[in-house]
TrEMBL record:
GO terms for molecular function: DNA-binding transcription factor activity; transcription cis-regulatory region binding. GO terms for cellular component: cytosol. PANTHER family: HTH-TYPE TRANSCRIPTIONAL REGULATOR GADX (PTHR47894), HTH-TYPE TRANSCRIPTIONAL REGULATOR VQSM (PTHR47894:SF1). Residues 235-333 form the HTH araC/xylS-type domain. It comes from Chitinophaga oryzae. Keywords: DNA-binding, Transcription, Transcription regulation. This is AraC family transcriptional regulator. The keyword DNA-binding applies.
Length: 333
């Protein structure tokens, strides 16, 4: 969070904004913020920074334009881990598992099919379809960083197949320029869809040894951040299921073996985090169901089979339980 705030302030300087006034309005003491042991920036301060940055610049798209200019350093150690990953797929998977080190306002989910992969940005709360300006700026920032940072790490310019937002954008041409794809509106969804060919694309700055050191540093930070670190295993299990969804929803035994645990140990560790393996698997099924239906590329019967349901009626009942509507009703939204 601190790195994002410092990056916003640096961008404000480039936009000739009165930084002293901006920080005062946001309740931020810049001299204190620069110190190594500075207290954490609050969500309220970040919200105010977005709001007053737009007002003082006279630019209602201040957040979007900042996102287009931001450097990987804004993500701190998470950005470094992304940069040292071996492939785009590995980088995205790490980003999803480590989002809580950047913000607690949303989390990332990944889903793969044989043609594409989708990165979803899931809000922690609030009205998804009518977000505050601050939350909207934050999620758009994370989405744009996902596109631009990946492009800067490989010998190809990444262009999403689809960009989905739960609202109509105020300036479609400006959004298309930054996102490299004109966003489409879909209720309740912030998502980027990419061609699957990017998944195994090697990253130019890959460095296994350095990444191992960075991951150990992140692990060492966990005791200092108990609230943010909560659910780490749950997140790893969830993202592993999503990233490998083309294999189907694997069993508890297979998942335990992947983490070098016995099934009983995995169950116990998840129980300590207040969740069961089946609940995580069901959450993944829901995410995949929404993705497959939204893509428009799969008959409902095939989706039902891919998610492990022997009967379409069983899938329909589960989908209605998750969303309050049937798959056919959701398709028509």
């Amino acid at each position: 969070m601190k790195q994002i705030v410092l990056s916003i302030i640096a961008y404000a300087v480039q936009r000739d904004i009165d930084v002293a006034k901006l920080c005062q309005l946001a309740g931020i003491h810049l001299a204190v913020l620069k110190k190594t042991n500075a207290p954490p920036v609050t969500q309220q301060q970040l919200d105010a920074l977005w709001l007053h940055g737009a007002r003082l610049s006279g630019d209602p798209l201040f957040g979007l334009h900042f996102a287009a200019s931001v450097q990987p350093a804004a993500l701190g150690i998470v950005g470094q881990i992304i940069q040292t990953s071996a492939t785009v797929g590995e980088a995205i998977t790490h980003a999803a598992a480590l989002t809580h080190h950047v913000t607690d306002q949303c989390r990332l989910e990944i889903a793969r099919s044989n043609k594409s992969f989708t990165v979803r940005f899931i809000p922690a709360g609030g009205n998804v379809n009518e977000p505050t300006m601050a939350f909207r700026s934050l999620v758009e920032l994370l989405m744009v960083i996902t596109i631009h940072e990946m492009s800067g790490l490989m010998l190809e310019k990444i262009t999403p197949l689809t960009v989905r937002l739960p609202y109509n954008v105020p300036d479609a041409a400006a959004y298309e320029q930054v996102f490299r794809c004109r966003p489409t509106k879909r209720a309740g969804e912030y998502a980027l869809v990419f061609d699957i060919r990017y998944w195994e694309e090697p990253i130019l700055t890959a460095n296994y040894e350095l990444q191992e050191l960075l991951l150990k540093k992140v692990a060492a930070m966990a005791p200092q951040q108990p609230a943010k670190a909560a659910g780490t295993l749950r997140t790893r299990v969830y993202n592993y299921l999503l990233a490998n969804s083309y294999l189907g929803i694997i069993s508890l035994e297979e998942m335990a073996a992947n983490f070098n645990l016995s099934p009983r140990s995995l169950q116990r560790k998840l129980k300590d985090e207040g969740v069961k393996y089946q609940e995580i698997a069901d959450a993944v099924r829901k995410s995949l169901a929404l993705y497959y239906i939204s893509s428009g590329s799969y008959p409902l019967k095939d989706i039902s089979y891919m998610l492990g349901y022997n009967e379409l009626s069983a899938f329909t009942r589960a989908f209605r339980r998750w969303t309050g509507s049937s798959p056919l009703q959701y398709q028509s939204l």
